[in-house]
Design goal:
Layout: E1 7-10, H1 19-41, H2 45-58, H3 63-73, H4 78-93, H5 105-114, E2 118-122, H6 127-135, E3 148-150, H7 160-169, E4 177-181, H8 184-192, E5 196-200, E6 215-216, H9 219-226
Parallel strand pairs: 1-2, 1-4, 2-3, 4-5, 5-6
Helix pairs in contact: 1-4, 2-4, 4-6, 7-8
């Protein structure tokens, strides 16, 4: 068996968490709360900065209309992701939202962390949104387990340079990092950067195996494939 990786870098949607949670809970929540949230917080520095960035991109179009178009398209646009994270934060903090995780995820993450593996997240959702999901998850606060959170500020998830930047940010050779995702093109990019890869093929998300990367149905399956500690 090859030497196990020293770091696990994981995607969220379709990997640790159900695609349905993002599409059927988080996205509708942000859309429904958009106007009320902006009315209440638009003058705050973090929100004002996001809206200025939206205005710069939108130019002649109303920023709120632009945001709604991006939401409808599920556009991977950083200011949208940042604003969604801020809206979700309010929902997590007052208990209206709880971060979904597949039942197999938290026990494995805890076991891997106890064994000394480094853990990190790379998602198109903002770092703020990532920390909220894991910090207010159905399995409790898991954020202390992670060494790093990365979003599209490092680059697109289908660009090899993004994964090289993440490895550099973790101060690790890319070959020591195992990237977990359900999306074949993301795995292709990670592999091109020298990372090891595994596609999560969860039946509940109807993920289709690509045949180009090792496959696992859940995190215990990942552990068996790569010689990682099993959950207690």
């Amino acid at each position: 068996m090859a030497v196990p990786p020293t770091c696990i870098l994981t995607d969220i949607e379709g990997t640790t968490s159900a695609i349905a949670f993002v599409k059927e809970t988080l996205f509708p929540f942000a859309e429904a709360e958009l106007d009320a949230f902006l009315d209440a917080h638009e003058e705050e520095p973090a929100v004002a900065a996001v809206m200025a960035e939206v205005g710069h991109i939108a130019r002649e179009q109303d920023p709120r209309s632009t945001l709604r178009i991006w939401m409808a398209e599920d556009a991977k646009v950083t200011p949208l992701k940042t604003l969604q994270g801020l809206i979700w934060r309010a929902g997590y903090l007052d208990g209206r939202l709880k971060g979904h995780l597949w039942p197999d995820v938290a026990p494995c993450l805890r076991a891997w962390s106890r064994a000394g593996l480094r853990l990190a997240v790379y998602s198109s959702g903002s770092v703020e949104a990532q920390k909220l999901l894991f910090g207010h998850s159905v399995a409790g606060d898991l954020t202390p387990l992670f060494d790093g959170f990365f979003d599209t500020r490092v680059g697109g998830k289908r660009d090899a340079a993004s994964y090289a930047a993440i490895a550099a940010g973790l101060h690790l050779p890319a070959g020591e990092v195992l990237f977990l995702s359900d999306v074949a093109e993301e795995l292709d990019a990670a592999a091109a950067a020298g990372m090891r890869t595994c596609q999560l093929v969860r039946p509940a998300d109807d993920t289709q195996p690509c045949g180009r990367h090792p496959e696992a149905a859940d995190f215990p399956g990942v552990a068996r494939l790569f010689g990682l500690p099993a959950a207690a």
